[in-house]
Design a protein that fits this description.
By secondary structure, this protein is an alpha/beta fold. It has four domains: 6-192; 204-376, Rossmann fold (3-Layer(aba) Sandwich); 382-463, Helicase, Ruva Protein, domain 3; 467-658, Peptidase M41 (Methane Monooxygenase Hydroxylase, Chain G, domain 1, Up-down Bundle). The protein has 29 helices and 13 strands. A six-stranded mixed sheet has the order 5-7-8-9-6-10. Strands 12-11-13 form a three-stranded antiparallel sheet, sandwiched between helices. It has a two-stranded parallel ribbon with strand order 1-4. The longest helix has 28 residues, at 596-623.
């Protein structure tokens, strides 16, 4: 047998040691078998076998050779079987009786194996059948995964894959779970680690390996943000980026798109052949209970990065590198370890985090944050969600074997906005479509329909059914009031109404869904903020029309409006009257300078703003009382109304009203 791949220096040394033992008769064999291989494999650091066995079974301070030899010696009787048909070399000798007690060489020779080292020199070894099978498996895996150099780790993996009996018995004697160990040394992972060394594969993975260049990229649009990323990475200095965005907007997806462009060659020519490596900070520090363990992993990571010229490191939740790996305050952590290579630009790094976490943790380390340039990823407008996720929907459809129409996708976008109001697109819509496909498939449907989408929120419909008639009407008037005040305001030009729901959800009885359009910039004067406050109070005013009283939901609206009014007065220097317009109050945690006089003045200005906004909302509701009644009735019939349905009623009413 001849190998297709070259054998590393350590593999040649391993085989030479086995052959030397055969020659010296240590195991009374005429060829290399699995027992000999296991002994030598365990002695090689690059096999990672002794390290794993020591960590899982034996004391880490025990000598590898000692315990390996001790356990292998227990199996010696299994391989020292005398061939009764063989000629006895002691026959006719005066000491024949004594010699017969000694074990004889067992003939286990099966075939000669030829291995070529990295200098193209050929080495020949006598192999037993079980030993040859191990190397045949190594050869097969190397050919399949285009591995050019065989290492001791590949031999370890092959032995676990073949479930070599002596390895199973050793694991049993060492109280090591063989099945768990086999998964640890899985061939799929070991033979395809590519640029990542096996010792780092527990917390590093190559995103290039997940890209199928024959398929269209699942991540559509985000061209402006991707271009911004490339421009930062192409800089000579501070060529690192941090992607800022709320959870679910697609920060990691942006990196996936960048990786796809590298794999397909659509990237700038400077990045052709680069690998995007993902660092899992939690896995990096996991299991490092002893002082020095995390430092060693960080040292290995930095050494790997310093030796790679064509790598982009991606760190999701990048704020977690602060303090990662240090046991006590002031010790070297991952962020400090990365600073030198960030400053030199040896490795290009992309981080991702939310604005809140960036400000709370990342931005406070000036030496770290100044080495990164921000890329802000906003939630897409509702009209752009479908074009953004349509390729991903095809992938989901193929996985589940269920189709979904564009109309149903748009319906799912609306429903996701209503029932996952606090989550962000495109993630919340994709998650709903994924679950809806599961529902449709389990019900034997070939296509997702509206019922499959709504089935994910059965609990909310049960809550709705349990509400009394008056409670439903209160919610209907409340949400219709928000919609009418927001729609009627000519100052809130950037607000786009999406849907209105009177179905109860986890944290609210109903919701008026809207978004801020980025292509419209309002003039934020006093009247603008009064209209914004009136929008908050529209539900409260409309409720009073119905029952001359307020619910707890209306109380929450008042709290929201009060907080907004407080900021308008203290931060923006605006008030309900022109006389006090120039008052600025330092109301941050750094400047707690409110006097009793200032507090009273602020409270009065806030109260005046709320009063002005309430009057504005009352005026709008009074002018559109017929529309309020119509929308409330429609909501009671439909429970959820889309932007198109709402606009149709709005346009018809306004046309009639102007006539």
């Amino acid at each position: 047998m001849k190998f297709e791949a070259l054998a590393s220096e350590k593999v040649i040394r391993l085989l030479d040691n086995c052959a030397e033992e055969v020659k010296n008769g240590v195991w009374h064999l005429d060829a290399i078998n699995s027992y000999l291989l296991l002994e030598q494999v365990a002695l090689e650091d690059d096999s990672f076998l002794d390290e794993y066995l020591a960590a899982e079974g034996m004391d880490a301070e025990d000598d590898t050779y000692a315990y390996t030899s001790m356990y292998l010696s227990n199996y010696q009787n299994k391989i020292l079987i005398v061939d009764e048909n063989a000629e006895n070399p002691s026959e006719g000798n005066e000491q024949a009786e004594e010699n017969q007690k000694a074990p004889q060489y067992q003939s286990v020779f099966f075939a000669e194996m030829m291995v070529m080292d990295e200098n193209n020199a050929v080495h020949k070894y006598p192999m037993a059948k079980d030993g040859l099978e191990i190397f045949e498996k190594v050869n097969q895996r190397c050919m399949t995964n285009k591995v050019k150099v065989i290492t001791p780790l590949h031999i370890t993996s092959a032995m676990f894959e073949l479930e070599v009996p002596v390895l199973r018995e050793m694991c049993s004697d060492l109280s090591v779970n063989f099945r768990v160990a086999k998964r640890h040394f899985t061939s799929a992972e070991i033979f395809s680690v590519g640029v990542i060394p096996y010792e780092l594969s527990g917390f590093l993975n190559c995103l290039n390996d997940k890209v199928d260049s024959k398929k269209p990229c699942d991540i559509l649009m985000r061209d402006k943000e991707t271009e911004q990323l490339w421009n930062i990475l192409l800089k000579m200095n501070k060529c690192n980026a941090v992607i800022i965005g709320e959870a679910g907007v697609g920060k990691s997806a942006l990196v996936e798109k960048l990786t796809y462009e590298i794999v397909t060659g659509e990237c700038p020519e400077e990045f052709v052949g680069f690998a995007v490596i993902n660092l899992d900070v939690n896995s990096l520090i996991a299991g490092t209970s002893y002082r020095g363990d995390s430092e060693e992993r960080i040292r290995q990571l930095i050494e790997f990065l310093e030796n790679q010229d064509h790598v982009i490191l991606f760190i999701d939740e990048v704020h977690t590198i602060l303090g990662a790996g240090s046991c006590f305050e002031g010790e070297m952590d991952l962020s400090n370890a990365l600073k030198p290579i960030l400053a030199r630009g040896d490795t290009k790094v992309i981080g991702a985090t939310t604005e809140e976490e960036y400000q709370a943790y990342f931005a406070r380390d000036a030496a770290l944050s100044r080495r990164f340039e921000r890329v802000v990823v906003d939630e897409p407008e509702a009209s752009k969600v479908y074009p953004m996720i349509k390729n991903k929907i095809r992938t989901l459809s193929k996985f589940h074997g269920v189709k979904i129409s564009k109309t149903t996708v748009e319906y799912a976008i609306m429903i996701a906005n209503c029932f996952a109001f606090d989550k962000k697109n495109p993630d919340k819509t994709l998650d709903l479509i994924d679950r809806s496909m599961v529902v449709a498939k389990r019900k034997g449907k070939s296509e997702v329909d509206k019922e499959s989408v709504l089935a994910n929120f059965d609990i909310f419909y049960e809550l709705y059914d349990g509400m009394g008639v008056d409670a439903r009407k209160e919610v209907a008037y409340h949400e219709a009031g928000h919609y009418i005040v927001g729609k009627a305001s000519d100052k809130l030009v950037e607000i786009n109404m999406l849907a209105v729901s009177i179905m109860p959800a986890e944290d609210y009885l109903g919701v008026t869904c809207y978004e801020y359009r980025k292509d419209r910039m309002p003039f934020r004067n006093k009247d603008y903020y009064i209209d914004m406050l009136a929008f908050d109070l529209g539900g409260r005013v409309a409720e009073k029309v119905f029952r001359k009283d307020f619910t707890s939901g209306a109380g929450q609206d008042l709290n929201n409006a009060t907080r907004t009014a407080f900021n308008v007065v203290t931060k923006f220097g605006m008030s309900a009257t022109d006389n006090e317009r120039n008052n600025i109050f330092l109301n941050t945690s750094d400047y707690p300078m409110f006097s009793e006089k200032s507090t009273n003045l602020i409270n009065k200005e806030v109260q005046d703003l709320i009063s002005a906004a309430y009057q504005r909302a009352e005026s709008i509701i009074e002018e559109n009382k017929d529309l309020l009644e119509e929308l409330a009735q429609k909501l009671l019939e439909k429970q959820i109304m889309s932007e198109k349905e709402l606009d149709k009623i709005w346009q018809r009413y306004k046309k009639k009203h102007h006539q």
